[in-house]
Amino acid sequence: xxxxxxxxxxxxxxxxxxxxxxxxxxxxxxxxxxxxxxxxxxxxxxxxxxxxxxxxxxxxxxxxxxxxxxxxxxxxxxxxxxxxxxxxxxxxxxxxxxxxxxxxxxxxxxxxxxxxxxxxxxxxxxxxxxxxxxxxxxxxxxxxxxxxxxxxxxxxxxxxxxxxxxxxxxxxxxxxxxxxxxxxxxxxxxxxxxxxxxxxxxxxxxxxxxxxxxxxxxxxxxxxxxxxxxxxxxxxxxxxxxxxxxxxxxxxxxxxxxxxxxxxxxxxxxxxxxxxxxxxxxxxxxxxxxxxxxxxxxxxxxxxxxxxxxxxxxxxxxxxxxxxxxxxxxxxxxxxxxxxxxxxxxxxxxxxxxxxxxxxx
Length: 361
Prior knowledge:
Elements: H1 2-14, H2 18-69, H3 71-82, H4 91-105, E1 139-144, E2 147-159, H5 161-172, E3 178-186, E4 194-205, E5 223-224, E6 232-235, E7 237-241, E8 253-257, E9 262-271, E10 275-284, E11 289-295, E12 306-307, E13 315-322, E14 329-339, E15 345-355
Antiparallel strand pairs: 1-2, 2-4, 3-4, 5-15, 6-9, 7-8, 8-15, 9-14, 10-13, 10-15, 11-12, 11-14
């Protein structure tokens, strides 16, 4: 086929005059050069693209190398901040620690903090930079996934403006992650003294590093809950310690569903007459698994069932529920897991229960 085509091309070429043959050769050479140039240009563009990609990756590698060089310093500073937080603190504890921090920063010479973030006792000399007669009412709110916000107002009587500015700078640099939401300054006519009203928010992070002497479970059944297979009931399922359980002070559980309509729950008690929140770190290999909270006695749901992601990755789930009664212990299925697909693996790596706080005076 190709031989026939070439034979026809040469036959047509030899039928041309010498001038036409020269023009045909020149045209063929020009076309060939254009093709070579186009191939070269495409190859050069590809090489330039690869060079830019290599330069970008080299810049990223240098940036990551610098970050690794600062890792120890960053971790040390983070530990200092994280020591000022605990997801297990009650609202009263948060208010008390914030009050201590505000009064500490109001001193002319703020005393240092101990390993637990408590001001070290001093002889009380040195006086105050600013006076804070009383603190306003504090209020807890859910700031978002993984943290809470505690808001409080404080008023400073008339003082020098530079004292207020220095006090604001101390609040900004506090290890308690304080945020100044609002500042109102007022001054009487012909006076150099300034009064201030300051709205402050304190960020309390979940999952922050806890001191080693903090128990896993508080006496009222709140806080981080140790994951012990003996406290769980499985119907159509097996419950065992997860491989990483030994690496966590709170343990981890593997729940494998063996039949359809399987259910698993932890037996737990909480004081009645209050509202609570449950936060669970959980993964599932099937999207046909739901989780909630219910009463153990008559298996009544206290919260809507949430469907778990079936990608096998760990996700954080949050649910709120209210308990009947007035202070009497209520037996719960908490969490209460249900699934219909046998051989599904559900893994729990964290469980926390906390009371939903109200305004604190």
